[in-house]
Design a protein that fits this description.
Elements (H helix, E strand, L loop, with lengths): L4 E2 L2 E2 L1 H17 L5 H41 L4 H51 L1
Antiparallel strand pairs: 1-2
Helix pairs in contact: 1-3, 2-3
Length: about 130
């Protein structure tokens, strides 16, 4: 472990930044090889899984938010409680959307890195064949 793990799991943003920086540094130095690509693709799969889980949780939270809004509008006797739930879920959704946005953009950046590594490896293989 590299110190990113703690009482509440890994710090996802730091984990992503550290990996991305290491890959970019290795590529800039010309030391990117098939092992780096394989490691990157494995971490990319992990990040895609994380993104999928967050998408599912976000959609379920949106559904709960819509239910709370519906209750607020249709059941005046429950309005004070359901309105409080609406506000709490809205705040939670803001954080979920922010984190999902980060995950989505990180995955897309990592696709580009993987493609660059593949292209670089292919170019190196072509040069060695000639």
């Amino acid at each position: 472990m590299n110190g990113d793990s703690g009482k509440f799991g890994i710090h996802m943003k730091r984990w992503c930044r550290t990996h991305e920086k290491a890959v970019r540094t290795a590529m800039a130095a010309g030391s990117g090889d098939i092992r780096l690509l394989e490691k990157h693709l494995e971490k990319l799969r992990w990040l895609q899984h994380e993104r999928l889980v967050h998408l599912i949780v976000t959609v379920m939270t949106v559904m709960a938010e819509l239910l709370a809004v519906w209750l607020t509008l249709t059941r005046p006797d429950l309005a004070p409680w359901s309105a409080a739930v609406v506000v709490l879920l809205a705040v939670l959704l803001g954080f979920y959307f922010y984190h999902y946005f980060f995950l989505e953009n990180a995955v897309q950046r990592w696709y580009i890195l993987a493609e660059r590594m593949m292209d670089s490896l292919a170019e190196n293989a072509d040069r060695e064949r000639k």
